[in-house]
Specification:
The complex is a heterodimer.
Chain A lengths: L1 H7 L3 E6 L2 H6 L4 E4 L14 H17 L5 E4 L8 H7 L7 H17 L1
Parallel strand pairs in A: 1-2, 2-3
Chain B lengths: L10 H9 L20 E6 L3 E3 L8 H6 L9 E4 L7 E3 L7 H5 L7 H9 L5 E2 L2 E4 L9 H17 L4 E5 L2
Parallel strand pairs in B: 1-5, 1-6, 1-7
Antiparallel strand pairs in B: 2-4, 3-6
Classes of the chains: A alpha/beta, B alpha/beta.
Chain lengths: 113, 166
């Protein structure tokens, strides 16, 4: 959303995202897709090569994209077991909205029973 | 091979995102006005990063009281920030790796290298950190903080912005 506000004001943007399909639904100008866990759009801590690959993909889109909805997916597989990575990016405690939604579902079920 | 956008998404969210219709009728586009190796580039994250001792954290206490609300403000992250100065306040992510290497979310060191190598004109003096959980519609981003950041970017002569939702 911020990408659209900034691009509409005339500043070129690239969005680096682990959900490029969602970025396409917002019809953004330039999108770099990464298959990385949330919280890690540029990769692993202290992995300079991985982070540089993503950063250079962004620069490549600035240099080469000539029309909106340009997308470049980075071909790097996350090197940690997917099940471990799936759990590891999530907070130790459910976020307030997740807990709130769970309470609302439970209350709805209790009303229904 | 295209990126799987749902690989690390909690399973319960997948269906709603897959069913989501197009959110905009028209695409958006601003050309880069000069070669990227001459451009001043700023960075933006939604990882909830802030500079310890100089800036307040994002208001997670209020979010705990109002679970449908997220702090819409932003923090300015200077290009010379050191790792030990960076902290994160975000209730929807494990923030551990930001304290090891915040470049995973806001790659300042990588863009300073690219600047030194002549691959980008320069990294802007100021980059930006938001906190990505926002109430439905993101009204404050759209009407207040987004336009404010646009003014700052333009005043600084920034040509391009790399945004990375966390």
């Amino acid at each position: 959303m911020l990408a659209r506000v900034i691009e509409e004001a005339g500043i070129a943007t690239v969005t680096v995202t682990m959900m490029p399909d969602l970025a396409e639904k917002h019809r953004l100008s330039r999108v770099v897709g990464v298959e990385f866990p949330f919280g890690h759009p540029f990769g692993l801590p202290n992995d300079v090569r991985m982070q540089r690959t993503v950063a250079e993909a962004a620069l490549r889109l600035f240099a080469e994209a000539t029309e909106p909805e340009s997308r470049l997916d980075v071909d790097i597989a996350w090197p940690i077991d997917a099940a471990v990575a799936y759990r590891d990016w999530q907070p130790a405690e459910p976020s307030p909205v997740v807990a709130y939604n769970a309470r609302m579902r439970q209350q709805a079920e209790e009303r229904g029973s | 091979m295209p990126v799987d956008s749902y690989k690390f998404l909690p399973r319960s969210f997948r269906a709603s995102f897959e069913r989501m219709p197009m959110q905009e009728e028209t695409p958006v586009w601003a050309p880069l006005p000069l070669p990227v190796k001459e451009a001043q580039v700023a960075l933006m994250t939604s990882a909830g990063l802030y500079v310890k001792g100089r800036q307040p954290p994002f208001d997670v206490a209020r979010e705990r009281e109002n679970p449908l609300w997220g702090d819409p403000t932003y923090r300015v992250i200077p290009r010379d920030v050191r790792q030990e100065e960076v902290a994160a306040s975000h209730l929807h992510l494990n923030t551990r790796d930001f304290y090891v290497d915040f470049n995973v979310a806001l790659p300042m060191a990588r863009f300073l290298e690219l600047e030194a190598e002549g691959k980008v004109g320069r990294l802007a003096d100021e980059s930006y950190s938001f906190m990505g959980f926002q109430e439905r519609g993101c009204a404050e981003w759209r009407t207040h903080y987004g336009p404010e950041v646009v003014r700052r970017l333009k005043d600084a002569g920034v040509h391009a912005l790399v945004l990375a939702p966390a």
